[in-house]
Amino acid sequence: MPVTVELPDDALARLRAEATRRGVSIDVVIAELAAQLPIEAPPRKSRLSFIGIAHSGRGDLARRHREIRAEQTADLHARDF
Q1: Do 28 and 56 have their domain in common?
Q2: Same domain membership, residue 29 and residue 11
Q3: What gap in Å lies between CA 22 and CA 16, rounded to an integer?
Q4: CATH number of the domain within which 24 lies
Q5: Residue 12 in contact with residue 4, Cβ under 8 Å?
Q6: What is the structure's pLDDT at 76?
Q7: pLDDT value at residue 7
Q8: Which domain holds residue 32?
Q9: Is the domain of 47 the same as that of 30?
């Protein structure tokens, strides 16, 4: 199936170099790279939204629960990109 993509010059140069080194077309290199990707994205681990709400015996959790949630949420969003 024909597909057109815009690649940065350095990525295209790496593909060409690998194809030349192996004596195959760029299509073969791209197909092999794509075959290494997972078919489905792994399920995202959900995090509990009630952290720090109950008394945990650790006073810092109760006081820092909003800060901790913000850190966890930022971590989840960073992995999406």
Answers
A1: no
A2: yes
A3: 10
A4: 1.10.1220
A5: no
A6: 60
A7: 92
A8: 1-37
A9: no
Task: Give the per-residue pLDDT at 13.
Answer: 96
Look up residue 12 and give its two tokens: 């295209």
Q: What is the pLDDT along the chain (81 residues), one digit of tens a residue?
A: 888 999 999 999 999 999 999 999 999 999 999 999 888 877 777 665 555 455 556 666 666 777 877 877 776 655 554
**Does one domain contain both 1 and 33?**
yes
Kindly state the tokens that stand for 50: 């009630």
| Judgement on whether residues 6 and 28 belong to the same structural domain of the protein | yes
As a whole number of angstroms, the distance between CA 41 and CA 59 comes to 37
Pick the closest to residue 62 from 51, 71, 72 (CA basis).
51
The DSSP code for 57 is S
Rounded distance, CA 37 to CA 54, Å?
A: 41
Count: domains in the chain? 2
